[in-house]
Amino acid sequence: MISDEALGAFQVIVGEENVSREPAVLDTYAWQPTINDDPAKWVYRPVAVVLPGSTAEVQEVVKVCNKHGLKFKATTTGWGVYSGPTSDNVVQFDMRRMNKIIEIDEKNMYAVVEPYVTGAQLQAEAMKLGLNTHIIGAGPVCSPLASATSGWGVGWDCIYMSYSARNVLGVEWVLPDGELLYLGTPGSGSEWFCGDGPGPSLRGILRGTSGALGGHGVFTRCAIKLFNWPGPSELHTEGLLLDAQSEIPENIRFHMCFFPDRDKLADAVYEIGDAEIGYLATRVSPNVFLYGATPRLFRKLTRTSALRSLLSETLKWMFVIVLMGSSREEIEYQDAVVKKIVGDYKGFSLEMTEVPVIGPILPMNFLRVSAIPAIFRLGGLFTTALGRNETWDTQLDWAEVGEELRKRRIEQGEVLDDMGDNPFMALYENNTWSHCENIYQYDTRNEKHLEKLHTIFAESTIRAMEICQEPLSSFDWRVRKILGPLLYDYNYWQKQIAQSFGAEGAADTGMYCDEVDYDLSAGDPQLKEKLEKIIAEKK
Ligand SMILES: Cc1cc2nc3c(=O)[nH]c(=O)nc-3n(C[C@H](O)[C@H](O)[C@H](O)COP(=O)(O)OP(=O)(O)OC[C@H]3O[C@@H](n4cnc5c(N)ncnc54)[C@H](O)[C@@H]3O)c2cc1C
Questions:
Q1: pLDDT tens figures, 22-49
Q2: What is the pTM assigned to this prediction?
Q3: Given this model, what pLDDT does residue 471 score?
Q4: What's the 57 CA to ligand 1 centre distance in angstroms?
Q5: 213 and 151 in contact (C-beta within 8 Å)?
Q6: Cα separation of 185 and 534, whole Å?
Q7: Using 50, 70 and 90 to split pLDDT, how confident is the model at 455?
Q8: Under a CB-based contact definition with an 8 Å cutoff, are residues 264 and 345 in contact?
Q9: Which of 95, 99, 147, 375 maximizes ligand 1 atoms within 8 Å of its Cβ, making it the mutation to test the pocket?
Q10: DSSP 3-state of 78
């Protein structure tokens, strides 16, 4: 319970209406069902929620937390369990009042944003100037600042617009003791155009692969790199989500490419990367589009044999690539390159922009990434056996491991039947490297599904270790204690970083570097044996 004194101090800083310790309000922050493998779906209830309206207010509120021995953690759009408190005694900072696009520098191609600006807002404004922003695969309602500064950042536009950690430029950062730090050019009193100097650069510490997930203090502004948008200044659209019908820009092509086997798909994708074409690219299973658009029909299809085999075997090696050209010649060139590569590898491609009904839903659902929430339609929730960034070939290995593990769980009725193959894959920067995570669909009302969430996590982690891949879950709070010593004590160093910022005991570092006791065998004797064997070998 927070003291009256601390609460009063918050109220003086942000105004009474922007602070609450009402349990009913606090529980709306503690209810975190998304990507939460705890069957109960709750996290710790914060002791208070505070809505700061400016950087100065964030600094003041942090100092009050320090004075009263309270930890704090920021949430922006809060689309995942990561933004919730991980222990008692945490004040949740809800950043929704800081929602402005401060500037878009058209010439130098960047935007300075506050935490609660969403991907959709930034994209709509950038497009007016012939620019575009990377939107993570979580969709357009997420905060570009959160992913740029604090967590992951993969999406299907990464082939052209990279990973969020690579797009962050100047940063305004309230440290865990309330001091203000500017990184990059704003750190030397200049504009926001560079994250690495002149002025201090701490990109590796600020971000790394996974981000500190709230454990570093509060980011109040950051500059984000923008990219070329060769389309219209507005995507004229009627309707919402899967009913959205947009005017299709002339200079766009949307290819669904199918290959006869894994090797041909793999090689074709490397060639596409070498050709330096594409605006958006992903490998997902065709089933994902079906269960997103028509979940009831999909359930019936799972019970067929011929159609099931067509979808999960014949059409399995699918790759989607969206092309955009800055001129007619360029789009025709890119189109011809895709057709040539697909033909060379004995595949075929369906160009979807001219297809009635389907074509017009593509701009909003792909370029604005609105299709992603459809992932909830099959069973209500999903879990992900943790994404990793690596070469395309090893990512395909990981997708196949996922399929093998998932099929067994489907047979045993422990997850929903998505026909087995369900990876989310993307390419970074013309396939210099790429992403793969394995998606498991489950029904949150099904006790058996809920019970198996830990086993899926454990099994995936152990399997990754067995095939000598970097354990995908190494960022995860549950496994640091086990994996840290096997991986150069990475967590020891993360703790040192947290200490040097004064974060320990001030910021909520639970998602970043705290260690907990966790049974990585999920109570399964076979997994326990495997785990012990691997640990012994690796040591
Ligand atoms: C359907 C779905 C699909 C997803 N797909 C992807 C995907 O393709 N790619 C991907 O990268 N992620 C994906 N995710 C995970 C996603 O990154 C997380 O859900 C993330 O939490 C979304 O960020 P957000 O913008 O809602 O920010 P939040 O959830 O609010 O914050 C994310 C993290 O950053 C911290 N944070 C937020 N704001 C600040 C701040 N101002 N200062 C300091 N710390 C802060 C939070 O404490 C939290 O740890 C997906 C999630 C869902 C639900």
A1: 999 999 999 999 989 999 999 999 999 9
A2: 0.96
A3: 62
A4: 23
A5: yes
A6: 46
A7: very high
A8: yes
A9: 147
A10: coil
